[in-house]
Design a protein that fits this description.
The structure is a single chain. The chain is of the alpha+beta class. The protein has 2 domains: 2-102, OB fold (Dihydrolipoamide Acetyltransferase, E2P); 124-423, BirA Bifunctional Protein, domain 2 (2-Layer Sandwich). It contains 12 helices and 18 strands. Strands 6-10-11-18-17-16-13-12 form an 8-stranded mixed sheet. A hairpin with a 2-residue loop joins strand 14 (337-338) and strand 15. Helix 4 crosses helix 6. It is elongated and about 85 Å long. The structure holds adenosine-5'-triphosphate and magnesium ion. Magnesium ion binds at residues 349, 358, 361.
Amino acid sequence: MWLAYRNSNSKDAKLLPEDKKVRLLGWIASKREHGKKIFISLRDRYGYIQLVANKDQLPEDVFTNVKEAYLESAVAVEGQIKKDPRAPGGAEVHLSNFIVISKSEEWPITLSALKSPEFLFDKRHLTIRGPKSRAVMLVRAALLKNAIDYFIKNDYVWIQAPTFITSAVEGGATLFPVEYFGRVAYLTQSAQFYEEAVICALEKVFVVQPSFRSEKSRTRKHLTEFWHIEAEVAFASHEDIMKVEEELLSHMINKTIEEMSDEINFVRKGKLPSSLEPPYEKLSYDEAIFMLQKKGFDIEWGDDFGAREERALSKMFDKPFFVTGYPVVTRSFYHMKDPNRPEVTLSSDLFAPEGYGEITSGGQRIHSYEELYNKILEMGLNPEEYDWYLEIRKYGMPPHSGFGLGLERVLTWLLKLPHIRDSTLFPRTPARLHP
Ligand code: ATP
Ligand code: MG
């Protein structure tokens, strides 16, 4: 239809020589009148370009169309490239034709509306057209692509796991029940158990899909639906998996910085972290507790970090770092004990610096049937609920390790967003299910 009309876009057009004719498609992002001229900022998938409508050089009906078009109308325009240092990007298009393909009503996102974050999220289906959302989504897409790129390059197999499940990976408290033909099913919290089954066929696997957590704690880093990047590796130790995590994170971020530096600089306040090259520092859980106590936090060995402690610890670093060796009491049942120190697990979290906190959790899983069976009983859980997960351990389950990374957590830190909901198009939180 209109696609064939377009012969350039807002980015390439600026590089064309003076007087070159272009035909563009897009939306009116802003408009102002100045004497006999109307200036429009045209937005398309590639960015913005300035259009100039001159009353003396346009047929009257075309100039009237320009004058009367509301913001966000979808338009097809034709004109000549003119170099002008005053125009954003150094070039503008002097219009010879202007067609409204689909008109807009008066745009509801007024300057005063910008002051109400709740209103902006109620109108998210419209506000995502703005320059900041655009930049965030482009960086997000690049991060995800580069994560997948890391795994493919390193010979992992991309697998898919079910969304309807019957038992909890990360504790029953955050499960979302769903009515399932007269039974109760739950939405998945993690694909880890399925990955563990599959490694006996494929050895190195990864998953990229949403996880669901009914998080009652309404913090700035929790969504009820988030994109989970998980990997599981047969024959890998806890040390091996930490290496994978740091390589993945640095690959994702460094490549994304390379590809999206304009977008990142547009959103992020302040300099980028100076070096993201691994290896990352490994702080033991014991040391972390000691550092927090020294800062005056009321925390004891065996406690999990609360949001405040996590932020404080993360602020002490300017590069990602691991916290290793979490106590058995703080971790889920499947975590392997450290053979040299049975009160702690072979597990770790990778933290973002600058106050952002946990972005991955990983470690070595128990691979012995008996040990896992006893641990399930010890934690007051029902082995029947974990029947197949236990059974895979009867048939040659090797030692293995894995981890999960939250895409939105990485993006929130990389762009220093004020809230995790800003990192996703249509956020899901306890208070928000619409649009
Ligand atoms: P937290 O302690 O921050 O609530 P968790 O330890 O419960 O997270 P894990 O089960 O370790 O989460 O999940 C692996 C990763 O998935 C986390 O490190 C985090 O990056 C991401 N993640 C977990 N829960 C959420 C959530 N509600 N919203 C966004 N990302 C999440
Ligand atoms: Mg965790």
